[in-house]
Specification:
The structure is a single chain. By secondary structure, this protein is an alpha+beta fold. Helices cover 66% and strands 14% of the residues. The protein has a five-stranded antiparallel beta sheet with strand order 1-2-3-4-5, with helices on one face.
């Protein structure tokens, strides 16, 4: 009897253990099912949310693509513009360098020409010397190439104008290197001139000798020839040929 009771107890324990194990397995299955169902619900929710926002997100994506394209184009244009700026800057620097070189060469040439002007002053007829000296003094010691070039052209123009006309002047002049006296002068350009004192007591020529303008008394021209030339210059008598002395060697 006692053995039966023990056997029954063992069987009850086994059944109880199996029942507990089965209950635990069902609970695990239920948890897995609930988890799976939850995941499916989340998946459906995500799909629904994606479907709801898909259009907006695609529009944003398209806008981002367009903005990226625009930025890329802007970057290319900026690089191109920068390249053009660099090219233009290089051109301007080259032009500036060429201008500075030209200015330097012009300054050197002007220095040479003005040295020639000063060295030839003594070889010019007195009226032209006076005009040139006044122009040079008025210009001062300007270092501006443009002003110096304008002055040089003015001096050359005055010389050309003087050389192209017959001029009359009355002034104090040293004859034969002696004391200055009042004489009347008729210039045929800038190479030779004739003079006579107002009373006709002295007549002569003016020309360049030994690189200097000189006035020398000479009987090669008479007072009558001088007065006739002056009358024609003043349009008091009809123009005609007058034999006046010209020594080529003296006028060089």
């Amino acid at each position: 009897m006692k053995n039966k009771i023990v056997l029954i107890g063992l069987l009850f324990g086994v059944f109880t253990s199996q029942a507990h194990s089965a209950t635990s397995t069902v609970a695990q299955y239920q948890n897995l099912v609930e988890t799976w169902l939850g995941l499916r619900a989340q998946e459906r929710a995500l799909v629904q949310d994606w479907q709801q926002h898909k259009g907006v997100l695609e529009q944003r994506l398209q806008l981002l693509k367009q903005e990226k394209k625009l930025l890329k184009q802007t970057l290319l244009e900026s690089r191109s513009a920068q390249n053009q700026v660099d090219v233009r800057r290089a051109e301007l620097l080259k032009t500036q360098s060429e201008l500075e070189t030209a200015q330097s060469e012009l300054a050197t040439w002007l220095d040479f020409r003005f040295r020639a002007v000063h060295s030839t002053l003594n070889q010019l007829p007195p009226p032209l010397v006076k005009n040139w000296s006044e122009q040079i003094a008025a210009n001062g010691e300007s270092k501006d190439n443009s002003e110096r070039l304008d002055l040089l052209l003015t001096l050359y123009r005055q010389r050309d104008e003087f050389n192209s006309r017959v001029s009359y002047l009355k002034s104090m002049v040293a004859i034969n290197g002696d004391e200055s006296i009042l004489i009347e002068q008729i210039y045929l350009g800038g190479q030779i001139a004739y003079f006579s004192t107002p009373d006709g007591s002295k007549t002569g020529l003016g020309y360049v000798a030994n690189n200097q303008w000189v006035w020398l008394e000479s009987d090669l021209i008479s007072e009558q020839q001088f007065r006739l030339a002056k009358a024609m210059l003043d349009h008091q008598v009809a123009a005609e040929l007058i034999p006046l002395p010209v020594n080529v060697e003296q006028t060089k």
